[in-house]
Design goal:
The structure is a single chain. The protein has four helices and no strands. By secondary structure, the protein is mainly α. It has one domain. It is elongated and about 45 Å long. The two termini are 17 Å apart.
């Protein structure tokens, strides 16, 4: 139960940060906007990695995941295979 609560809290914090960075990305100040875009890129990578790991734990194949991400099976496998077994 504690793990579930911790995960739910982390998800909530992540959603809040995505919303905040999305708002900053429309700033008229290029410094603020570009920093926000860079942070959003890092957050998207983190979200993707978390979801790929969840899919693999749920028994999804690399092909199943690749189809949903719009990439090849080789691309997703190459990017995430090193994370297998780490959880």
């Amino acid at each position: 139960m504690l793990t579930f609560l911790a995960a739910a809290y982390a998800d909530s914090v992540l959603v809040d940060e995505v919303a905040a960075q999305a708002e900053r990305s429309t700033s008229a100040d290029p410094e603020v906007g570009l920093r926000a875009v860079a942070r959003l890129r890092r957050l998207a990578e983190q979200l993707e990695a978390d979801q790929v790991a969840a899919a693999r734990r749920a028994g999804w194949t690399w092909q199943d995941i690749a189809l949903r991400l719009g990439v090849t099976k080789q691309t997703v496998h190459r990017k995430y295979r090193h994370r297998e077994g780490r959880q």
